Amino acid sequence: MVGGGALVRKPAPPVAPRPLNRRLPEPPSTLRRGPLREEAWRSPLRSERTAAVLGIWVGVAFAICFVTGLISHLIQQPPSWFGWPSRPVNLYRITQGLHVISGFAAIPLLLAKLWTVYPKLFEWPPVRSILHAVGRLSLLILVGAALFQLITGVLNLARWYVVMPFFFTTTHYWTAWIAIGAILVHVGSKLAIIRLGLSAPAAESEEQADVDVDSPPDPPGGLSRRGFLTAVAATSGVVALTTAGQTVPALSAITVFGQRDPDLGPQGLPVNKSAIAAGVEETAIDPTYRLILQGPRSNELSLAVLRSLPQHTVTLPITCVEGWSATADWTGIRMADLLDLMDLPADGEVFVESLQEDGLYRASVLSPPHTRDPLTLLALQLNGENLHIDHGYPARLIAPNRPGVLQTKWVSRMTAL
Amino acid sequence: MTSAPEAGSTGLTLSGDPEPAPSPYRWAWYLPGLVAVGWGFYGLLTAPMGPDPLQWVLFTALGVAGHDLVLVPVAVGVGLLVARILPKVLRAPAQVGLIGTGIALVAGFAYILGPGVSADVPSALPFNYAGRVAVLLAVLWVAMAGWAVLRIVRARSRSPSRSRSGSRRAGDADQPE
Predict the structure, then answer these.
(1) B32 touches chain A (CB under 8 A)
(2) Residue A5 in 3-state DSSP?
(3) Contact at CB, A147 and B64, closer than 8 angstroms
(4) Which residues on adjacent β-strands are paired with residue A385?
(5) A194-208: string of b/e by CB count within 10 Å (b at 16+)?
(6) Cα distance between residue B176 and residue A121, in whole Å
(7) A390, closest residue in chain B (CA to CA)
(8) Is the Cβ of A185 closer than 8 Å to some Cβ of chain B?
(9) In chain B, whose CA is at the least distance from the CA of A124?
(10) Per-residue confidence band for B1, with pLDDT thresholds at 50, 70 and 90
(11) Model confidence at B7: pLDDT above 50
(12) What is the C-alpha separation between A138 and B146, in angstroms, rounded?
């Protein structure tokens, strides 16, 4: 107001609401009890700023999970337009390690975010309009899909498959699309509030403390909002560090939530599927073993012949889709040499099959650039010894920058495609 | 209750203020988001080896119910106890300790229970997870105890007069006798 005249804001003309946005009758106020009461939720830790900051962190963690999970899916089920390089050799190790680490790190972030907005579950009236009801239902999809991803991820890492009445890989993948899509929709619906929250003053003193339902006016001494956010971030960081040991050997001593010790297993390397579980404990040690090559020129090679071919030693990680990885020295025949024996053209693909008779991962397709990469071997030895039967004796595929489930073990047949 | 045809979209923020008007850019997020959600449901329903839709819905609903009806109420109840019982000087360390403890148990419960351990694959789940979680929690609570002691010492050195004669609330440990 300047110059003595009051600045009068012209009221906005009344706008007739659309039917979907028309206010519905409110339930009787006598029903507004317990957590539905207006003053039921008074923790000063909850604010637009807290929710916005936590939401950004959750969004980043889920985005990392989604992108890295999508990469893993595309490598395993590549569409025609997708190509995956063979270098750098540790790229998949990084992406899949990040997938699991960021997934675990998202647990405290998501739970803190949901705790922060929990009072909205009890907002009054429960439904203001049809649009509002749709919005609340969409939140159910968001929360359900996000929790689903973290719960199934933890269960899968802990190999607790029996409580999941579905095939984890397929369901986790498709639910990831729902979760990331619901996050985008949620961000769109909350853009204005997020902007409001992020523009709010950063924090209050620690003397603005904690309380919750039914508690008296804020007693001092508890966490401030900044302290709460710091605690959540620190917890997330500790969870990440204590998960990363299965990917980063230097951190294996402090592993708490990791599935593997990278140095523990036959020949100092973990195993994901044993010979017994694959049902090959007899066929793998059969002295009549032959590697069958089927292509323009077919052949059958005994183990003795395979050992007589030029041998090469490479240092490569084995990287499981469950995030763990470990480096080892592999010795065997270059795949390029075997493909030359088959007269396979330079851009040819080969179907690699295992002695394992059943199972989703009993075979894999080896495509360029992995086929002719000098680091791709049909390995006969691991760390200077014949392969342990659980590592794929008598022969296994090992290629750079490729998921472990595609590093076919107990190789019995290679067919040109 | 109102029968007037007023807009029903206005809710309240967490702070109790009216929600601001939706952003004009929201559709730039809605469109890819809705496409992704639709693609996800399409995949769930049509993918080979996809889940039984009813079981997927049940599993998801159980997750939401377990979170909304068990996990958060327990967390809220514990937070309420901390606010009411603990002296103020101990509240922040206790809150951080409880946040860390809760998360460690949620993230580690499937490892601790150990149903996935198999004699076939001894290199999988090789650790004593209960022991490792216990060590993690011990480190956390020792750190929080140290922080609490620091807070007590700092509180006493800042306001010695209040410590001797200030008003006292039940359970305020930073008010020496």
Answers:
(1) yes
(2) coil
(3) yes
(4) A382
(5) bebbeeeeebeebeb
(6) 42
(7) B121
(8) yes
(9) B11
(10) very low
(11) no
(12) 44
pLDDT tens for each residue of B113-147: 999 999 889 899 999 999 999 999 999 999 999 99
* Tokens found for residue A387: 């392969």
Instruction: Please give the full DSSP string across B33-57, using - where no structure is assigned.
Output: HHHHHHHHHHHHHHSTTPPPHHHHH
CA-based nearest distance B54→chain A, Å: 10
Q: What angle do CA A21, A27, A32 make, to 5 degrees?
A: 120
Q: Quick check: A395 and A332 in contact, CB under 8 A?
A: yes
A residues 114..153 contacting B (CB < 8 A):
114-121, 123, 128-129, 131-132, 140-141, 143-145, 147-148, 151
ipTM of the prediction: 0.90
Residues facing A331 on adjacent strands: A313, A381
Binning pLDDT at 50, 70 and 90, where does residue B173 land?
Answer: very low
Residue-level pLDDT at A16: 59
Contacts of residue B115 in chain A, CB cutoff 8 Å?
158-160, 162
Instruction: Answer whether A171 touches B (CB < 8 Å).
Output: yes
Q: Which of A158, A174, A188 minimises the CB distance to B47?
A: A174
Q: Which residues of B touch A120 (CB under 8 A)?
A: 14
Q: Do B103 and A242 touch (CB under 8 A)?
A: no
Q: Report how far apart, in Å, the C-alpha atoms of B137 and of each of A172, A369, B172 are.
A: 30, 47, 25
In this predicted structure, what is the pLDDT of residue A107?
98
Q: How many residues does chain B have?
A: 177
Nearest to A372 by CA among A342, A396, A395, A393: A342
Averages of pLDDT over each 10 residues, chain A, 417 residues: 43 63 89 90 91 97 98 97 96 98 98 96 92 90 98 97 97 98 95 91 48 43 92 98 94 95 94 95 97 96 97 97 96 97 94 96 96 98 97 98 97 97
For A217, nearest residue in chain B (alpha carbons): B83
Q: Which residues of A touch B19 (CB under 8 A)?
A: 192-193
Q: Judging by beta carbons within 10 Å of its beta carbon (0-12, 13-18, 19+), is residue A74 exposed, middle or buried?
A: middle
- A221/B91 Cβ within 8 A: yes
Q: What pLDDT was estimated at residue A210?
A: 41
Q: Supply B49's token pair.
A: 């080896």
Query: Which residue of B20, B39, B43 is in closest CB contact with A196?
Result: B20
User: Pairing between strand A377-382 and A325-334?
Assistant: antiparallel
User: Hey, is A128 helix, strand or coil?
Assistant: coil
Reading the block at residue B60, the tokens are: 């998801």
pTM of the model: 0.90
